[in-house]
Design a protein that fits this description.
By secondary structure, the chain is an alpha/beta fold. The chain is about 15% helix and about 30% strand.
């Protein structure tokens, strides 16, 4: 499963991430919001082409799980053939829950009800995170387009046992096992 957040309309960054989807053999694509628009506080990214991003993602609509980011709107939904307006979603992995959200409403300081061993996957900050905090996995793949905090562009990967944040060179920037030791 490949996790992408904060594409912000860059077809260039999306294609790099999708190359990794193929290399890693990922069947599912989890989009954690801010898909098409760059947002008023961000610079216009390299390869800014929201329509091309929507068209490319629509090719994979049958394998996408997406949530709404603070830059996503009903107009964006008109371009996408998969639902993008849910504020959050849930995955059940090995009998435990993983909450998917963008991070602007629910975030590490405002978590939904989670049991010990559950996980919280979010974007919004553009900062890579993969760590356990108080018996909850916190996972943020960073941003493929506009990394912040001195980080490089990154995406997330879940291989069934480990959540990893990776850069486009294939280096692991952060990782955490899904099974808490």
């Amino acid at each position: 499963m490949l996790f992408i957040s904060d594409i912000h309309g860059s077809i260039t960054a999306l294609e790099k991430a999708l190359d990794w989807k193929a290399k890693l053999g990922c069947k599912s694509l989890v989009l954690l919001g801010d898909l098409l628009n760059h947002g008023p506080r961000n610079p216009i990214p390299e390869g800014y082409d929201p329509q091309a991003v929507a068209e490319r993602l629509n090719e994979m609509a049958d394998c996408i799980i997406a949530v709404r980011g603070n830059c996503d709107s009903e107009v964006d939904q008109m371009l996408c053939r998969f639902p993008i307006l849910a504020e959050y979603n849930w995955l059940i992995l090995d009998g435990r829950r993983l909450c998917l959200t963008h991070g602007h409403l629910m975030n590490p300081d405002n978590l939904p009800p989670l049991a010990a061993g559950d996980g919280f996957a979010y974007g919004h900050t553009h900062l890579p995170v993969a760590q356990w905090k108080e018996d909850v996995l916190h996972f943020n793949p960073g941003s493929i387009t506009i990394p912040k905090g001195g980080h490089v562009a990154s995406f997330g990967h879940f291989d069934g046992s480990e959540f990893r944040v990776m850069d486009f060179a294939g280096q692991t920037l952060a990782s955490a096992c899904w099974k808490r030791e």
